């Protein structure tokens, strides 16, 4: 089955044909580690994790690099605010990012370079750009001369002439407009470090690399001069990815990446909503109440290019829905291997139909939204299947495909101390529903509060009442 992807570079959907056969070189821009990760980060890293998993499951030999930006103005500024060294701050938030990614079952990439490990190579990259007439030194900074790269603007669909005309009023890159630049659209490859600030020795004095240069250099040294897939959030298209293209293609005279894929934002619609989110702004806050599967499914229920409207109600509804999948998966038992499991022709054909529908959705620009709707339909069919062997066989197929989406299928309700404990919670919640129906809110509130005190979180949504252990 041919995979199609929407390429930001061409502005259309294209057949995915890697540069060399089944080998896929893939790079995702990782986090700048200066704060805790939030749901927007979760979305970005979950979707590219699923693309990585799906390509591997489709038989591609994928090498995936996802960097960590551990030197940046944001890190330096935050470190000053909190009064610790920037290296220590970066390390602290690198660890918390790893923790969050592991909690969300985001797979480790094959390479996870930190920008500070590649300073020597970054300096060499800049030296070559200066030699080739694409960059210039000014007052200890080095800038990329945008006018030297005729294709500038091709990814972000920006017209260089227009950019130049309007640029004085408009800050179009992350650097403050500098009097040292030949034109305001030029961007920093290397920035002079102030006295006492984090920096490395270079031919232009002590300084640090620009953010865009970091990615171009790490891609070159880890994956090569041309890669197949370059991915990231849509906020990176311009200027970050545009500038990566300018640097790499000016130097190597070949395309940096064949396909550029970008994911949409997570939107929090209203001010009221962002206030009501309160403590739920970070991944670790969300994980105190919602399971990793709930968060993954919530994110993946929207196609990656579309925006997601985030509300706690929609997350709670996802949580309620996931129980259907968990129930179906439970018929797989502990065996993850379908070998030797016999199933009737009817059960086989339902499973085959699911497999082909799932793959058709995923190969259509990774349409996880449609793939998940097939997963739910298949789960419902399994839950209705009476024959034990058929159910077991189909559940194994379900588990395998759910793992492509990175779902753990761990039923957190089963982590209650005994099956009896789980039934007792259900019993109490039934009593609470009865109390509510009789408008006996004192009793229903008391039951809820008592359960919360025991570490059990009760969630009400349009789809019904669910609970899980905190
Ligand atoms: Zn990048």
Give the tags:
Four Helix Bundle (Hemerythrin (Met), subunit A); alpha/beta; four-stranded antiparallel beta sheet; four-stranded parallel beta sheet; Rossmann fold; globular; binds zinc ion; 470 residues
CATH superfamily descriptor of the largest domain: HUPs
Q: For the largest beta sheet, what order do the strands appear in spatially?
A: 4-3-9-10
Q: What would the principal axes of the Cα set say about the shape?
A: globular
Structural class: alpha/beta
Uncertain stretches? none
CATH class of the largest domain: Alpha Beta
Bound molecules: zinc ion
Strand-residue proportion: 5-15%
> Count of DSSP helices?
16
Total count of strands? 14
Structurally, the number of domains stands at: 3
- How confident overall, as mean pLDDT? 90
CATH-defined fold name of the largest domain: Rossmann fold
What can be said about the biggest beta sheet?
4 strands, parallel
Q: How are helices and strands ordered from N to C?
A: EEEHEHHHEEHEEHEHEEHHHEHHHHHHEE
Helix proportion range: 40-55%
Report, as a whole number of angstroms, the end-to-end distance. Answer: 42 Å
Question: What Rg is obtained from the alpha carbons, in whole angstroms?
Answer: 25 Å
CATH architecture descriptor text of the largest domain = 3-Layer(aba) Sandwich
């Amino acid at each position: 089955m041919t995979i199609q992807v929407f390429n930001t570079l061409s502005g259309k959907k294209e057949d995915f044909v890697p540069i060399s056969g089944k080998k896929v070189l893939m790079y995702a821009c990782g986090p700048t580690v200066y704060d805790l990760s939030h749901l927007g980060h979760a979305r970005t890293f979950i979707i590219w994790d699923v693309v990585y998993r799906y390509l591997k499951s489709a038989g591609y030999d994928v090498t995936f690099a996802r960097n960590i930006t551990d030197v940046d103005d944001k890190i330096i500024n935050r470190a000053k605010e909190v009064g610790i060294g920037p290296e220590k701050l970066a390390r602290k938030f690198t660890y918390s990012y790893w923790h969050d990614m592991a909690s969300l079952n985001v797979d480790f990439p094959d390479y996870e370079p930190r920008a500070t490990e590649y300073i020597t190579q970054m300096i060499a990259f800049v030296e070559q750009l200066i030699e080739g007439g694409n960059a210039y030194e000014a007052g200890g900074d080095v800038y990329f001369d945008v006018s030297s790269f005729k294709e500038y603007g091709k990814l972000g669909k920006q017209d260089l002439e227009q950019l130049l005309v309007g640029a004085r009023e408009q800050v179009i890159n992350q650097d403050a407009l500098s009097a040292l630049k030949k034109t305001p659209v030029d961007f920093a490859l290397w920035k002079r470090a102030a006295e006492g600030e984090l920096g490395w020795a270079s031919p232009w004095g002590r300084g640090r690399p620009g953010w865009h240069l970091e990615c171009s250099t790490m891609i070159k040294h880890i994956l090569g001069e041309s890669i197949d897939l370059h991915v990231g959030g849509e906020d990176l298209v311009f200027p970050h990815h545009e500038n990566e293209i300018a640097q790499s293609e000016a130097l190597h005279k070949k395309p940096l990446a064949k396909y550029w894929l970008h994911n949409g934002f997570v939107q929090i619609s209203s001010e009221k909503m962002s206030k009501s989110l309160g403590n739920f702004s970070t991944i670790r806050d969300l994980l105190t109440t919602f399971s990793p599967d709930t968060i993954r499914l919530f994110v993946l229920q929207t196609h990656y290019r579309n925006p997601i409207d985030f509300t706690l109600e929609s997350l709670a509804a996802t949580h309620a829905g996931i129980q259907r999948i968990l129930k179906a998966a439970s018929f797989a038992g502990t065996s993850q291997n379908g070998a030797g499991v016999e199933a009737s022709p009817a059960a086989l054909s339902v499973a085959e139909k699911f497999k082909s529908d799932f793959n058709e959705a995923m190969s259509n620009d990774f349409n996880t939204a449609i793939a998940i709707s097939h997963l739910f339909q298949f789960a419902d069919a399994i839950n209705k299947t009476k024959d034990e062997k058929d159910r077991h066989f189909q559940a194994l197929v379900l588990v395998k495909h759910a793992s492509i989406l990175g779902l753990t299928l761990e039923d957190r309700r089963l982590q209650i101390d005994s099956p009896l404990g789980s039934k007792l919670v259900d019993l109490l919640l039934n009593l609470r529903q009865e109390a509510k129906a009789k408008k006996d809110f004192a009793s229903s509130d008391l039951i809820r509060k008592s359960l919360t005190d025991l570490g059990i979180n009760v969630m009400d949504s349009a789809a019904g009442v669910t609970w899980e252990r905190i």
